[in-house]
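User: Quick sanity check before I run a bigger batch. Here is a single chain. Can you write out its predicted 3D structure?
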Amino acid sequence: MGRLSSFLVFLFIFSCEEVIDLDLVQQQPRLIIDAIIRVDRSQEFVPIEVKVSLTTSYFNENEPASLDTAYIYYGKEENGDIINSKYSYLAEQEPGTGVYIPDPDSPTDQRINSVDITEDTTFYLVIEFEGKTYFSKTKFIPTVPLDNVEQGSQTLFEDEIEIIVTFTDDANREDFYLFDYSNGNYIVSEDKFYQGQEFSFSYFYEDPVEIGDELEIKILGADRSFYNYMFLFLQQTEGSFGFFETPAATIRGNIYEVSDIENPENTNNIQNPDANPLGYFAVIQEYKKTLKIE
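Assistant: Done. Predicted structure follows.
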């Protein structure tokens, strides 16, 4: 009886096997612009790297995009005008990669010097691709340094690693933070409940971390808009992602398609939000400490 039942189950499984062709809706490729620029004041130049790609079908990886033009200009904004503006023209680092850096072949140095950036500096990103123009604007976002980073021991599971981060919030401003724990692990925080105070909290690694590994723990500045974007992003990706992976299409960034707009800075004039690219443009200060796991 047991053999007969097993045979019938085997027959049922394989008689129901059928190849199903999914008729997926083919959507127009959408531009992805990932331009999260980190400023480390201990370095002479800002490591600018803008990665651009195109969305593809559900089962395929995104394809790098080759732009017509890409540049960043920046300066102090007064009454709608940019004072002492400077430009950084970008070029593809290697053909076909979609990664854009300050043009190394330009007759003048296109790198941005860290000393030129203050809390009053506003940055503008302009990209031209296949006859369309994309624009974004952001202010430099400062942050506070890390006071201490140490390994803790209050873990619930044997394979967990606890990292305790301590920093002191700036009492003179409203601060938002993005913490980068390496290996694609990020969390966000705001100073609503610790304004101007020293604050410590723990982070627990779920991914394997081995004894002897060296981790770079980083604190990054954020404004409310970037904080909200990252908060939603992390909710949809369960707290772990790569900046240059596909952003969720439901999360609106701060880069706009402005081809038919006379004043690109007035983003209220945009009539078709679905034409905007995915991704985000931010220029944020970074501090970091290295911790060796014991």
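Helices lie at 2-15, 224-237.

User: Great, the batch can go ahead then.
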